[in-house]
Design the sequence.
């Protein structure tokens, strides 16, 4: 599989030079073509900031402090996402990178009909007549099971699930290489959530785009992701193939996160929340950011930030005790 | 600023809807009818206030007026009846008086001016009304467009050099009372630098007619009153739009428009400004009363021949019939303007029909 | 990053006064300017009259004098001292404004609190009343009432009229605030304990409204002063008292502008404008406090 997105050492800061507020620190990740990468973490873990940086949607005071992000689209040359000029950025957007936000209600322009929000996008990128753009919009809606008549509806006239599916159709209208989804199913009920996930997987197989899927629900990622990266305190603390990582989490935080949510399928299990609160980015604890909440922390954990180091070919963990953690008490599903 | 009972644009109406376009229009009509009902009720309050006030005031205004009229000439029985219907009849029960008063209004009989005897009040008002309607509607639209336009630019980049000039300037201009702006403009552009005439609506030596000399004279005379209203009201629109833009630009649908790779101006206008406009238009309805009040003062300073100056003259000369009639006309005009602004809002916001 | 906003802290009669000074620089500057006016109104007349020996009404032979050591802001056509008039006028204007503001704020709190707390039919009736007063133009109503009064009752009658007509705007914001407080734990708790409704409104709800009340009180103080000045300027109010408005009225009547006596009409105009700008700052600051996104904008500007 060829590389689509290559992020190296990306750091984003919300503060000033004097008072840093690091939301994302030294994040590196790779996304292969046709792959679904899940990024998991609690609110404030930096996952949304990370994708906003990649999509160049950061708003002041957030700034990229360091790092690089390169996109290798199917057609055309590689794009330096963090430094592309306005013209190149406009060309890249939606043709190569598209996004689905958490709340579809807020993501659609409330005063504009659905059709217009498709056609203005298409016509910003392709020189096609309005009728053709409308046809394409109708086709995309059809793909997610929305009748074409809905092109004349305003967003508030659609049900919640329909709105979210419409934003997915909108994201795919220019046939992008990369689809970023930021908690796309938190605003809909569980039935709709499953339906949407199935649809995304089906579309992904048909159209061949890659997905970065962000959520706080690790079990949901198990359903759809090929690989998972877990973020905590602005850093990736563990990454690996979805099944391996879920079955055998190496980082205590991943373990806690897994045990906080019920699996979508499979046996019932006791749920344990993680004690304590996500770290205050203004005053991060010394060493490992998870150390104050970690049940296995030792004095060495506060000495330095553990590096994300490889465990076998596919996995990486940022924990100095990754190899000598006590055996799992209740989880290990065989 | 948001309108009285219009939905605030950022409340999220409940989902669900299978109503095609027809139900939407039906919904809008229903909203407008409800607003119409409210304004009719408010008009009834204004008409009743107009009835109650002279009867509550000390010193029997009806006799004062009749005495004043008697000094000018013989008061006919019809005039006496008309004045008493408007201002109070001794020893008649209030309900009867009220019915009498309403029928009087229905006949558009507002009595006779005491200061400009023997001119009927209705006639004087119909002479002054076009001047004020022209002045206030033109300046309100201009100030609204100018302020909203500058607010878009200012709010799109808060903290930019332009914004850091415009926002404080708007705060400053918006805080100056109309009469002071009028006085300063009069001093600067009419007394110190005699660029514009200081008084009247046109050169009194000209014969009113639709010719170049008269029209240009009207424009020259109207310039300073118009400038007063624009200068005093543009700041409010600018700040309102600026702040709404800053709020709207942070919305997800604006981020999405950016992520979609749309052009900067399309994002700014069709996505951000189009939504930020809604509270502005809702605010327009409420501000009309303030603008009209301010323009009364501006007209008084420039002796502009509209109903504001007439109102001023009426109060200074204690011309009660003229005063009361003008109060009523001004109130009703403001209500009509309010309804127009509300209708524009309903047209602009597709969600209005969700308003329950 | 998602930031979840905690509900604002509960205020009681003991803790509320500490929250009255807004944490916003613009609002503070505006309040400081208003405080200077209050100070001038309080001690100014005594200083100019007793210490400097100037009189706002004494007619002297020194007619239309430009500023000098004897008359720091010059004299009027009648030979009265402009500085003394300005300072005494500050007191009159502020007293009138305070009365109007207290009347309108009291009405707005009563209507907003009762409507928001009881809800239902009470709220509907009060809401309709509020909307009616909101759309009826205030100034024409004030002008005709002032016309009937013809100076009877002095400047305070006009202030009363302004207060009685100008409460609707504030009533809306207080109603909204009360609605959000109605279902807070401490209000529900008091209700479960069987406290009477008036007591809950006064003891539990009202202190939480104080920050809103103090802000609107300041704004209505200033708008009332501007309205009274406008009436005085037109000669519709009580022209026998010395106020900024009557100073401008006489300056215009006596053609001060044509004769170039700027020291006569500029000082009261500046006094009014600066006070108006202070209100603008308070307003702007409160917007920033209640809308965090505007604050973010300010930070961006600093970069």
Sequence:
């Amino acid at each position: 599989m060829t590389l689509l997105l290559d992020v190296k050492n990306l750091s984003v800061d919300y503060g000033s030079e004097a008072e840093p507020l690091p939301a994302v620190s030294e994040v590196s990740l790779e996304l292969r073509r046709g792959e679904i990468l899940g990024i998991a973490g609690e609110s404030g873990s930096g996952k949304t900031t990370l994708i906003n940086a990649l999509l160049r949607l950061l708003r002041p005071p957030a700034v990229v402090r360091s790092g690089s992000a390169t996109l290798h689209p199917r057609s055309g040359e590689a794009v330096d996402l963090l430094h592309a000029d306005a013209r190149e950025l406009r060309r890249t957007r939606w043709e190569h990178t598209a996004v689905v936000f958490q709340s579809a209600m807020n993501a659609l322009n409330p005063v504009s009909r659905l059709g217009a929000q498709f056609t203005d996008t298409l016509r910003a990128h392709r020189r096609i007549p309005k009728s053709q753009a409308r046809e394409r919009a109708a086709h995309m809606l059809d793909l997610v099971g929305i009748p074409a008549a809905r092109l004349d509806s305003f967003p508030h006239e659609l049900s919640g699930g329909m709105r979210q599916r419409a934003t997915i159709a909108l994201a795919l209208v220019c046939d992008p290489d990369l689809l970023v989804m930021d908690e796309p199913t938190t605003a809909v009920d569980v039935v709709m959530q499953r339906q949407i996930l199935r649809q995304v997987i089906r579309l992904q197989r048909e159209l061949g785009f890659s997905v970065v899927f962000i959520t706080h629900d690790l079990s949901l990622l198990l359903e759809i992701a090929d690989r998972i990266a877990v973020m905590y305190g602005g850093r990736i603390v563990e990454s690996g193939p979805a099944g391996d990582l879920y079955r055998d989490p190496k980082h205590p935080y991943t373990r806690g996160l897994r045990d906080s949510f019920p699996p979508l399928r499979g046996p019932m299990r006791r749920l344990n929340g993680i004690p304590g609160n996500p770290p205050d980015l203004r005053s991060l604890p010394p060493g490992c950011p998870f150390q104050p909440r970690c049940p296995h922390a030792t004095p060495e954990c506060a000495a330095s930030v553990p590096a994300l180091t490889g465990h076998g070919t596919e996995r990486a963990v940022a924990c100095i005790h990754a190899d000598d953690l006590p055996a799992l008490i209740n989880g290990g599903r065989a | 600023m948001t309108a009285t009972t219009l939905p605030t644009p950022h409340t999220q109406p409940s989902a669900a809807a299978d109503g095609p376009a027809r139900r939407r229009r039906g919904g809008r009509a229903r909203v407008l009818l409800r607003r119409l009902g409210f304004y009719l009720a408010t008009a009834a309050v204004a008409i009743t206030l107009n009835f109650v006030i002279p009867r509550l005031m000390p010193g029997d205004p009806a006799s004062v007026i009749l005495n004043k009229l008697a000094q000018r000439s013989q008061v006919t029985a019809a005039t006496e009846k008309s004045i008493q219907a408007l201002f109070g009849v001794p020893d008649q029960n209030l309900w009867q008086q009220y019915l009498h008063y309403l029928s009087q209004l229905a006949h558009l009989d507002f009595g006779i001016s005491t200061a400009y005897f023997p001119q009927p009040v209705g006639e004087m008002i119909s002479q002054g009304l076009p001047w004020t309607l022209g002045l206030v509607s033109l300046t309100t639209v201009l100030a609204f467009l100018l302020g909203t336009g500058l607010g878009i630019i200012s709010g799109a980049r808060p903290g930019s050099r332009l914004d850091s000039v415009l926002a404080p300037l708007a705060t400053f201009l918006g805080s100056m009372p109309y009469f002071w702006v009028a006085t300063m403009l009069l001093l600067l552009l009419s007394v110190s630098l005699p660029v514009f005439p200081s008084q009247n609506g046109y050169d009194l030596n000209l014969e009113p007619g639709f010719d170049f000399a008269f029209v240009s004279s009207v424009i020259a005379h109207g310039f300073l009153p118009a400038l007063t209203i624009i200068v005093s009201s543009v700041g409010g629109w600018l700040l309102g739009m600026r702040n709404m833009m800053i709020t709207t630009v942070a919305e997800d649908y604006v981020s999405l428009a950016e992520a979609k790779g749309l052009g900067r101006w399309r994002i700014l206008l069709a996505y951000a400004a189009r939504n930020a406009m809604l509270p502005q238009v809702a605010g327009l309805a409420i501000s009309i009363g303030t603008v009209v009040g301010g323009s009364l003062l501006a007209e008084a300073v420039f002796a502009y021949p509209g109903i504001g100056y007439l109102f001023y003259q009426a109060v200074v000369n204690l011309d009660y019939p003229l005063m009361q009639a003008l109060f009523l006309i001004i109130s009703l005009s403001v209500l009509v303007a309010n309804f127009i602004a509300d209708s524009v809002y309903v047209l602009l916001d597709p969600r209005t029909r969700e308003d329950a | 990053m998602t930031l979840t906003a905690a509900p604002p802290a509960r205020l009681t009669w003991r803790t509320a006064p500490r929250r009255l000074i807004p944490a916003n620089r613009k609002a503070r500057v505006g309040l400081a300017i208003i405080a200077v006016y209050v100070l001038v109104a309080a001690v100014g007349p005594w200083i100019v009259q007793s210490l400097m020996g100037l009189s706002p009404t004494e007619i002297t032979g020194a007619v239309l004098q430009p500023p000098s050591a004897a008359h720091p802001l010059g004299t009027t056509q009648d030979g009265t001292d402009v500085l003394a008039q300005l300072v005494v006028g500050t007191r009159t204007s502020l007293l009138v404004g305070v009365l109007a503001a207290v009347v309108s704020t009291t009405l707005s709190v009563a209507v907003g609190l009762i409507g928001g707390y009881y809800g239902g039919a009470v709220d509907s009736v009060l809401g309709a009343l509020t909307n009616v007063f909101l759309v009826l133009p205030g100034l024409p109503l004030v002008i005709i009432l002032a016309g009937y009064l013809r100076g009877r009752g002095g400047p305070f009658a006009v202030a009363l009229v302004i207060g009685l007509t100008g409460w609707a705007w504030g009533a809306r914001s207080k109603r909204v605030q009360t609605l959000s407080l109605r279902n807070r734990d401490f209000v529900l708790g008091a209700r479960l304990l069987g406290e009477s409704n008036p007591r809950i409104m006064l003891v539990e709800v009202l202190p939480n409204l104080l920050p809103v009340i103090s802000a609107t009180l300041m704004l209505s103080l200033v708008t009332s002063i501007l309205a009274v000045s406008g009436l005085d300027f037109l000669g519709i109010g009580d022209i026998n008292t010395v106020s900024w408005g009557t100073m401008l009225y006489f300056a215009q009547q006596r053609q001060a502008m044509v004769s170039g006596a700027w020291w006569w009409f500029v000082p009261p105009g500046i006094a009014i404008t600066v006070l108006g700008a202070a209100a603008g700052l308070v307003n702007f600051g409160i917007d920033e406090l209640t809308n965090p996104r505007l604050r973010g904008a300010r930070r961006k500007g600093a970069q």
Summary: Chain B touches chain A at residues 9, 12-13, 15-17, 19-21, 24, 250-253, 255-263, 266, 270-271, 274-275, 278, 348-351, 354 (CB under 8 Å). Chain B is about 75% helix and 0% strand. The CA atoms of residues 33 and 53 of chain B lie 30 Å apart.
